[in-house]
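Backbone-to-sequence.
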């Protein structure tokens, strides 16, 4: 299900059902910031039981009529590059289509045929081969660092490198190649633009800050930067949430780089594939779950649900927030005022009482949430 608001209820999942792979992410909410492949990624996550919040951070804008790309293409024809770095399949196809529109397809194909072609990933490789060209090398990890290391080891002093940009300039990699003596032609084959409707992105930012999502997926470094920009003055709060409570899951090392610079721990699959990204989330999220033994019962907290003796019981945000606060200090009495801090702004102490009542009903376990007269509530140890 797409958009998939927090607070929606689901039927209780039995222990047998919860043990199935299709329920491995049940009880968790995952944000998706991709645009072009949002449906594919959402389907993969939902197939494992996750609730998904779709909020494209950016959209791809082709620039087939862009003067900068045309000038860069002319530069490649006038001074054929020794090396061509193909970063994405969509970028390679867009460049060739643009060249065809300008009547430059054949001379560009001839230039590319004579160059040492580096394809950074399987989609880039597929695009190269579908154009009738031959790729010469691909990095195992699909990272720019590997590419720079490989090219500098080959020797690029005095050589020309044409580098397809991944939606925006990558000055650190251009500078590394220039420092090694190369002349670099940057090819802006497409650009990132803000989403047509920014409301879902701003809503996702709010959900991250409020810890109402358990993980956020990123498939490009530009999307990371777009989410930080969307947070505005709340960027520090968003980064705090990603450091402590919300899993940042990135498709590859290039995507994760901006988060690492902010000291954010990231989960990155061994291979830059959506399937691998989802498997990484399946592996990582359960490790972060809190599990307690309470009054002879097993209680595990997931994002918007509790697993009670093996059965998953969905909870609305307010009772889940109360449960999380109480589970953070088992045995300790938390006052209504203290629990109020865990609820959304504008709530009062009556809202705490309502949340506790709904929590007890949702867990259906007498004695798990105890009232301590005139003091507050606790989970017994």
């Amino acid at each position: 299900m797409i958009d998939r608001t927090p607070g929606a209820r689901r039927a209780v999942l039995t222990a047998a059902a919860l043990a199935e792979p299709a329920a491995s992410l049940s009880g968790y909410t995952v944000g998706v910031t991709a645009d072009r492949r949002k449906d594919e990624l959402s389907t993969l996550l939902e197939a494992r039981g996750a609730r998904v919040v779709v909020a494209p951070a950016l959209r791809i804008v082709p620039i087939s009529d862009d003067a900068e790309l045309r000038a860069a293409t002319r530069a490649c024809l006038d001074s054929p590059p020794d090396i061509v770095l193909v970063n994405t399949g969509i970028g390679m196809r867009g460049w060739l289509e643009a060249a065809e529109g300008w009547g430059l397809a054949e001379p560009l194909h001839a230039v590319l045929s004579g160059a040492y072609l580096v394809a950074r990933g399987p989609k880039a490789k597929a695009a190269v081969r579908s154009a009738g060209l031959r790729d010469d090398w691909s990095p195992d990890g699909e990272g720019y660092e590997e590419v720079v290391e490989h090219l500098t080891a080959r020797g690029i002093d005095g050589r020309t490198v044409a580098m397809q940009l991944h939606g925006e300039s990558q000055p650190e990699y251009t500078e590394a190649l220039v420092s090694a003596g190369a002349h670099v032609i940057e090819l802006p084959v497409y650009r990132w633009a803000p989403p047509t409707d920014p409301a879902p992105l701003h809503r996702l930012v709010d959900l991250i800050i409020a810890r109402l999502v358990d993980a956020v997926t990123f498939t490009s470094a530009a999307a990371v930067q777009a989410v930080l920009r969307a947070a505005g003055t709340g960027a520090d709060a968003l980064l705090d949430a990603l450091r402590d409570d919300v899993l940042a899951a990135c498709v590859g090392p290039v995507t994760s780089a901006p988060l690492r610079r902010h000291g954010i721990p990231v989960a990155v699959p061994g291979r830059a594939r959506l399937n691998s990204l989802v498997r990484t989330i399946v592996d990582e999220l359960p490790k972060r779950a809190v599990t307690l033994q309470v009054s002879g019962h097993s209680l595990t907290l997931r994002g918007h649900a509790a697993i009670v003796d093996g059965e998953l019981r969905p909870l609305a945000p307010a009772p889940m927030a109360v449960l999380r606060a109480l589970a953070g200090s088992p045995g300790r009495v938390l006052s209504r005022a203290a629990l109020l801090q865990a609820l959304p702004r504008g709530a009062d102490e009556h809202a705490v009482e309502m949340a506790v009542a709904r929590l007890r009903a949702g867990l259906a376990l007498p004695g798990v949430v105890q009232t301590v007269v005139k003091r507050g509530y606790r989970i017994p140890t």
